[in-house]
Here is the input.
Amino acid sequence: MTVGPVIDRRMFLAGATAFAMASGPARADSTPQLVARPGKARLLSTDYPETPIWGYNGGVPGPELRLKQGERLVQRLVNNLPQASSVHWHGVRVPNAMDGVPGMTQDAVPPGGQFTYDFTPPDAGTFWYHSHNQSTEQIARGLYGLLIVEEIDPPEVDHDISVVLDDWRLSETGAITEDFDRMHDWTHAGRIGNFTKAALLPQVSRLRRNERLRLRLVNVAVDRIMVIGLHGMAGAIVALDGMPLRVPERTDHVILGPAQRADFIVDVTAEEGEQALLAIHERDEAFVLSHFDVGASGQSVSRGPIAPLPPNPLAPLATTQGAQMARLVMEGGAMGGLRQGIWKGEVLSVRDLVAEGQIWTFNGVAGLPETPLIEVPVGEIVEVPMQNDTAFPHAMHLHGHHFQERLADGSLGPLRDTILMDRGETRSIVFRADNPGDWLLHCHMLSHQKAGMKTWIRVTT
Ligand code: C2O
Ligand code: CU
Here is the structure.
């Protein structure tokens, strides 16, 4: 992996100043910038100080980038952090060089450095961008934002609201605790926070009965799985991980692993004077994340049925004939019974693995293997049966592609980019490898990824 030069605080500041001058008003270049830098956010009530964060343009979430389908995205990452960084466009089928993976698709951008991302997202939907370097720390500190690609012909709604769900680990003074590297977290369910927050964009707080909403739920937490319930509104999921469902799924809740998204279209059913709520459900309890005061209806009846979103260019697979198989066995973690693992080409005992900060393996290997899980020519269909031989759930994410799960009855599930697997489960994903390049396949519980759960595939031209 390429890492930026070691720079001390004084040099960093000097570098930042030099950059600020270079990018001053005299400069004619109008490329939009995502400046990764320290900032402050009001996460807790005003009884607490603001929380120091790292954010794009200093805020958390970062700016919500909105494009029309077919429009080009150009964003220059400017790194004003004390660490190297990069931006990954999660769920977007980007050209490989734009994927933002240090050591694989680009060099990490050193402090004071920059990198321009330039591509046209092919699919409409709800996506997000986040740091892909030291992500257990950088995402926990707030380096993420949403990328919304609007349909050419979007569904008619009264409000289109993004709901960015994060899980923070905060101290009594409201500061992010700097315990990003605790092996005890890594071997278990990850660095689970003590404060879950939903940031709404825009910040709507009043609704009317019978109004129709599009809610774009995005779980940006480093490790926490969230069960989100909708109360005082009724409707359906119309898209998962950015991709439209052929048939909207009527439900009042959704389970989102880290990085997963769900687009709901709902009508407000709460009566005037009541509240509509978004809640997180944990065991038998529910905690309110956001509430909306409901006013009198503008219209007496709700709108008609919820129609599917227009399809994206990526069509679900018609057949999986001739699929090339690549098995993946997941082992390790606490209570996993792992005895040894390969790390950097050598077989290590668990003790020695732990000393390297590693505790999870894919096919016996901790960390990125030298050779890909599979190498296929572009256009081939690939099937990856994944067996979770660990005592924890995992959220497996494939870069550059959307896949479908092969369900128990042999049919294929909806297109997704991240799949939540419970402990002991085997689930098989299948996709057309239609995007040339080297692509990561990893657990999006970032603590697990850091402690070993990653591999890659190669799609050749
Ligand atoms: Cu959301 Cu490898 O990333
Ligand atoms: Cu995991």
User: Anything to note?
Assistant: Residues 88, 90, 130, 132, 259, 397, 399, 440, 442, 444 surround CU-O-CU linkage (ligand 1) (CB under 6 Å). The chain is about 5% helix and 45% strand. Residues 324-460 form a domain with the Immunoglobulin-like fold (CATH 2.60.40.420).
